[in-house]
Each structure stands twice: as structure tokens, then as C-alpha cells.
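Bench notes, bay 3.
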Amino acid sequence: MTPTHRIGDWTFDGVSLRHADGTERRLEDRAARTLAALCVRRGEVVSRDALLADVWQGRAVSANSVAVVIGDLRRALDEDAGEPVHLVTVARRGYRLNQESSVPREGTFQMFHSHWGPLAVAGLAVALVALAGWGLAPGSTPWPAVAVAPVRNETGEAGYDALSRALDTVVTNRLAQVTAVAVTASDTPPADGLTLTPRLILWNGAPELSLTATDAATGRVVWTAFAAGPAGDLAKVTAARLDGLDAQLRPQGWLERVFRRL
């Protein structure tokens, strides 16, 4: 009998995800096998190479194959790629299915209050003093700049070069419209900001834009998203996906960043 795994409000039976409300989503074979591999090693970081060996079994694939499947799984689980609860990317190491993914995420203040009670007030006071010293007042953005790398055509087809160039302008202009931080088209990471790396790939024969935002100071991936084709819709879908990065850049991230500095 195939074991089942609980992932938040979902149950995974090795083939499909079933929600507590009765919704069922059948997974593509590679996605199902990837999730099964993560379930078996739940709580552990599973490297990209380990997933390639287990799921693709030595077949030649693009460098983004695992990331694309993880993106599909997050969408199937209704996961916010900017703040994943179930499937977490561990920078430079791989991916982890959280042990306690069924536990609702707590906000920063609720977490401090529930675990430390009155100490939360003192901790927040210290943080506010630190903010004044660092010039990071509440309401400011945790990253002052975003460098947008050129869209790389990783489809293996030169016919998509023109689409890659067109998406360059879409990504940079849209991000500049939706954020309050400095946005530049550059391969050089800002000293204290984010680098957004867009890659054009093929998934099931259709073009898809992979978007990854990395903290330049720590190398930590803070946001990922995928904009799926067809090619004629890719610019519109990309612009919509970038709204998610705008949310990540908004002031709710300032306190988390302060406590990383303490």
C-alpha cells in the first residue's frame, strides 16, 4: 500500500494531492516523484544533484529542471513562492520539505510574544533603537536596490532570442513601476540589495520565464516565480508575477532583516 503524506491541508498519495476541502490535483510524473523524494527525507535538505539522480535518473536535462518542478509543486500546493511554508529553498544546498508544514506561519510579533512573552516587548524596543542607528525606520524597504540581470535564453533555440530581449524591457520597466526601490539593468549585484535573475526556458514545449531574486549580501534566495507562456502572453504574465516581488520588497520585511543583524 502506498504511504500517504500530510503537507499542510493537503494529503499526498504518491500521485495526487488532495485538499481537506475535497479538491484533488494530479501531479505530472516528475513533480510527483520529486515530492515523493522530499517526503521520504522530510526535514532534510535534499540537493539538486540528489533529486536529478532520483527523479531524472541520469537523463540530460537543463540546469533549471529541478527549480521548474519545485515551482510547479508550489503552485499545486497554493504556496507563496516569496514566503514558502512547505517547500523551502536552502541557498546553495537544495530543497527541504518542512517537518511542521501543517502549522500556520506566525507573524514576527506573534512569534516573539508566544514564545517569549514579555521579552518580546524588550526585544522589539532593542530592534527599534537599532533601526534608528542603521537608518532602517519602520516603513522603509529592507533592500534599497534591485539589479536586474539580462534575460538569458536557455531554451536552446535561437528563435527565442528576440523574445528574451523583449522581456528584458518588460522586467526592468515593470519592476521599476511597482517598487519604491532603485531598479537598474545590470549584471553587477548591488552592495546591499537584490539581484533579479530571469531565465527563459522551455517547459512542456512552451516558453516560461524563471525569476529568482537573491540577497546580494547573504546569497539567500528570497523570492522565486515562473511566468508561463504561450509566447504572446508571456509579457503580461511576467508583469503580473512581478507584483509578488513588489510585495516581498514592501516594509513587512524590515524587522526580519534587523534581527538577522543583531
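Next record in the batch:
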Amino acid sequence: MIIHNALINYFNGMPKQIINLDIDLLRTFVVIATEGNFTRAAERLMRQQSTVSLQLKRLEYALGHRLIDRTPRSVELTAEGEAVLPHAQRILDLNDEVVAMTHEPQMQGLVRLGTPEHFATHRLPDILARFVQAYPSVELEVTCDLTLNLLRDFRHKNFEIILIKRERASGCEGIRVWREPLVWVTGLHDYVGSNTPLPLVVSPEPCVYRKRATEALNRARRTWRIAYTCGSLAGSIAAIRAGLGVGVLPKDMVPSGLHVIDGAPLPDLKDTEIAMLCARKLSAPATKLRDHIVRCLG
């Protein structure tokens, strides 16, 4: 992948020509990339859509490369846009930490966050640690639970922010913050090649992963049975590892010791999403946490 020399020089810290990137332009680019839509990006940034488009063009001009390909139906990152995005996020993180340290040391309060267990285990620790470092007086109360329970408690106003598993393009409120390719996982036992019903290790209903597995098997006309039901990620992984059945996990969250089957001889699994839902009126600390999570997950 070829990135413009000015960008390489900028991030290597050895510029032949000093180019000072505008933080505001970088933030606009990151929000567009996160939302995948100029209209939603403009709403989040509280600017006119024409202003957002102009800011993106200014950043592209400064870097000498097109970062986003925009069509009437989609917004896609170019190869250069994919390369720039993580660096832009890192610059914004540092900028916000400095601002928080110097301008908002007095920010304090409690923020209650709900999240699926697997996401809290693999994705959130580093993100939340960086937030706590930037806002040491803000208290975080993080609860791990099933999506159904998180939604129920969110409606009862027990959380300011929740992250939930959902179907892609489900029409559910909230914004997508993560896409999860799913794979089949097994222990040492070979149930895949057997003619007997495939034993499944699943979470209690309703569960997106469980639905993905059973629907895919039904479409492939492969018989199955529920062998083990557990609401705990650790319990499910232990059951799969012990050979009690086959499970479904996000592709990049499969622990060592489990075997991945991505497609044949089992049917393909469609991707799922992690979406964020927020209370209508967020406190200042909750607003900061929302923006921090969205930016970090991209």
C-alpha cells in the first residue's frame, strides 16, 4: 500500500516539509468513517452536511490522497483511508487526554455501562483504561450480561450506555460500533463429520449467536440438537473445550486450544454487530465515554 510521502513523514516524525494536520478535520474524517454515512456524521458533529464534506476535502488535500469513496448508496474507505484511520484515532485520543487533563480535571460523576461478557473481556479493557486515565475522577460501573437483560435494564434506566449484540441492519435503534465475523469452534471431538445431529453449545434464548447457528444449519438441512446451554462465556468455552459440543464465537476472539471451522463442511455464518444505545439525556462524563468508545472502536 502506498501512502503519500507527506503522511509517512508526518507519522515518522522526520518531515521534509512540515504539515500540521487540523484536529477538527481528523475528527470529521473519523466520525464519517465510524458512521459510514455523511448525514449521520453531520448530526453527530452538529454541522451542516456541506461543511462536513468540505472538511473532508480539506484533509484529503492536505494529505494528497483521497480517503473516502462516496457513492449515492455507500461510503467506503480507500486504501489510504484505511491506513490513516488508526493514526487519526490515536491523535484524537492524545488530543482529548491533554484537553481533559488541563481543562476538565474537575469532571466527575458515575457512569453505568452495560456490555456483553465476551466484548467486555476482549475489547473494552484497554478502551476503558484509557478513559479512566484521562478522567480519573469519573467512576465507571460496568455490568456484563446477556443482551436481553441489558435491554431490559436500559429501559428501566439502570444504565446510561449499553453495548448489545444485534442482527446486521436490524433497524434497532442505536449506532453500530463493531462488526463481528462469526465462526464455528470445536474442541478435540470430531462432531462435524458425524451423521448424528450436531451438538451445540449455546447461550439461552434469545441470543444472536444461537440464532445464527440454528438458522445456518436449518438452511443447510443439517440436523442439530442443543447439548449445553450457558449464559457465561467462560462456561460455554469450557464446555466446547471439554468436547460437549460445537459453539459459535467471533473470529478474532477464539481462545487458544479451540479449533476454528470457518465455512465448509459447516455452513457459513453471517456477521453480527455490536451496537451502542444511550440514554436520551447523558451527563457530561457519560457523553465523554460514549464518544471515546465510538472513536476507539471506529
